[in-house]
Amino acid sequence: MATTELTEAAEPLAPAAPNTEAPTAPTSSPSSPAPVTKKRRVERRERLRKSALCKHFDKPGGCPFPNCKFAHGRAEVNDNDTHSVAAQRKLIREQAIHRTEEQFQTADAGAVTSKRRGTMIERYYTEMFSCDTKGKPMEDQYVHMHSNRLCVVGVAETHPVMQEELVSVEFTQSVLDSRVTGKKKKGGRFMLPDTILAVLKCKSGREFKLYSCIRGALIEVNERLQKEPEMLKQKHRSDGYLIIIQPKKVEVAEIQESLLSKDEYKQFREISKAKTQADEAPANVKEEPMKDEQMSELVKKEAQVEAVPMEE
């Protein structure tokens, strides 16, 4: 009996059967690169490293985290990157100061006088535009960013819907179902640039889709447009806005880089208008009527022509 057990133990083990199951998805490890879905988040985290002060550094006992991503003291703060929190806050402050300085002008004698203050949008908002949204010609939308980082999204005055008779403004159900709570307005749906906000239906049968244009949390929806759709055309810069979005602090500079400023928008539309007129010019050329002097010269030439005698 003992010999049979020894012989069985001495026999080599059979090779393992090949695995016929479907291959599983590769899992990420610290040594392997991050998945594509997390690439944006990882890049932003690395970009913001050491861009803000640590809250635990100056407390008794110091920072409890060995690999803290925040700076331990002003000397370690890295605010040279344009996408850092400090740099983006500085950008908003500089834009607010620039708008304030534009409200005054200096005369030759050195006296400072107040000039026309303009509208509320011009005084407190940074005006940006999304031209030809989703590749559709002239379907422009505006994004007005306040100094408190809130963004108002609406329809630009060059949008084709301004020439149509608007029947209804239908917001998508996901936008209407978004709710915020608390003092800081938490819980709103996170919007992406290609998120559809509403569909505009015109009397002629045309329909236009409006988009979010930027990333951020949805704070407010202008549901008044459902009862008064014409307000979107009559007061498109004020009461006719679509939604209010709160972007992330670290994405302020990225949003402003992805859109056109007010001056760039005007220049873009002037160039496109000139190009359109140049393309339509050959088709609109008409034959000019002949002047009286030209007609008289033709009559004289015909009179000088000798008549051909008829054969008998």
TrEMBL record:
Low complexity biased stretches: 1-35
Coiled-coil annotated residue ranges, if any: none
Pfam families hit by this protein: GCV_H, zf-CCCH
GO molecular function: zinc ion binding
Domain C3H1-type: 48-75
Keywords: Metal-binding, Zinc, Zinc-finger
Residue intervals of every C3H1-type zinc finger in the record: 48-75
UniProt xrefs under PROSITE patterns: ZF_C3H1
Biased segments, Basic and acidic residues type: 285-304
Annotated region (Disordered), positions in chain: 1-45, 273-312
Cleavable signal peptide: none
The organism's place on the tree of life at top rank: Eukaryota
Keyword Metal-binding: yes
Entry similarity comment: Belongs to the ABITRAM family.
Name of the featured protein: Protein Abitram
Organism this protein belongs to: Phytophthora oleae
Lineage, opening ranks: Eukaryota, Sar, Stramenopiles, Oomycota, Peronosporomycetes
